Amino acid sequence: MKQIVAIDGPSGAGKSTVARELARRLGYIHLDTGAMYRAVALAAGRARIALNDINALDELCREIDIGLVNTPQGLKVTLQGEDVTLLIRTPEMSSASSAVSSVSEVRRHMVRLQRKIGSGGGVVAEGRDVGTVVFPDAAAKFYLDASVKERAKRRWLELKERGIEEPQENVLNDISARDHNDSTRDDSPLHRADDALVIDTTSKTPEEVVEEIFLSVKELEAGCG
Ligand code: DC
C-alpha cells in the first residue's frame, strides 16, 4: 500500500534533496511544505502586508493559489499560476517564511492544503511539523538532523550555486535564528515525533539517506513494517 512518508528536521538537514529523490524512486508526490510558507511570504511582500498582520495574512491565505507541480527537473512552485520556484529561495524569503509560519491562521490554511494533497497517500512530505501535526498517523516518519556548521555549509553552497553570494557567517547566523524561531514558536514548533526515526546526516551522502528510507518504506508498502 502506498504510504505517507513524513520527513521533518531543521533547515539544511538535507530534507529537500532526500525527499525529491525518494519521491522519484518511489513514484510518489514530493510535498515540500516549506515551499508553501515561502510562497505565502512572497505573496505577503508583494501585497505589502506586514508579517505580523494576522488578519491580512489570514485573508491573503484564503485568496492565494499556491501550486506544487512535480516535474522531471524537480518541484515547480507557482503563485497565482506564475512560476516562483527561484524567487522563493532567497535569504530574504527564508527569514520572511519563518516569520509567517509562526502565525497560526497561516498554518491552518497550509495544513488543510497539505492534508488534501496527501489524502490519497503516495506522498513524501517534508517540513517541520509533518510527522507531528500534518500527518500524525503516517507510518513512515523520519527526523533528519545534522550539525549546525554542516547545515550552514550546505545552505551556503546551495546559494552560491544559484549565484547568491552570501558570507558564510551570515548563513550560519540565519540558520541559527531560524532554528530558534522554528523550534520555539507556540504553534506546531519543530520537534521530533516520538515515533520518528532520527537520521544524523552530518557525515552521510544524500544517496545513503535515500536508500535507508527507501528500504524502510518498501517494507511498509509490502505490509511487513
Ligand atoms: O524548509 P524551508 O526552509 O523551505 O521552510 C521555510 C520556513 O517555513 C522555515 O523557516 C520554517 C517554516 N516551515 C514550517 O513552519 N512548517 C513546515 N512544515 C515547513 C516549513
Query: What is the helix fraction of residues, given as a range?
Result: 40-55%
Side by side, the strands of the main sheet go 2-6-1-7-8
Taken in chain order, the helices and strands follow as EHEHHEEEHHEHEHHEH
What form results from the Cα inertia axes?
Answer: globular
Largest sheet: number of strands, sense, barrel closure: 5 strands, parallel
Q: Quick one: CATH superfamily?
A: P-loop containing nucleotide triphosphate hydrolases
Query: Which residues form runs of ≥5 with pLDDT under 50?
Result: none
> What's the average pLDDT?
95
**Bound small molecules, which ones?**
2'-deoxycytidine-5'-monophosphate
Please give the domain count: 1
CATH topology: Rossmann fold
Number of strands: 8
Fraction of residues in β-strands = 15-25%
CATH class: Alpha Beta
CATH architecture: 3-Layer(aba) Sandwich
Radius of gyration: 17 Å
Question: What is the end-to-end distance?
Answer: 11 Å
**With helices defined by DSSP (H or I, 4 residues minimum), what is the helix count?**
9
- SSE class: alpha/beta
Q: Which labels suit this protein?
A:
225 residues, alpha/beta, 50% helix, 5-stranded parallel beta sheet, binds 2'-deoxycytidine-5'-monophosphate, 8 strands, globular, Rossmann fold, 3-stranded antiparallel beta sheet
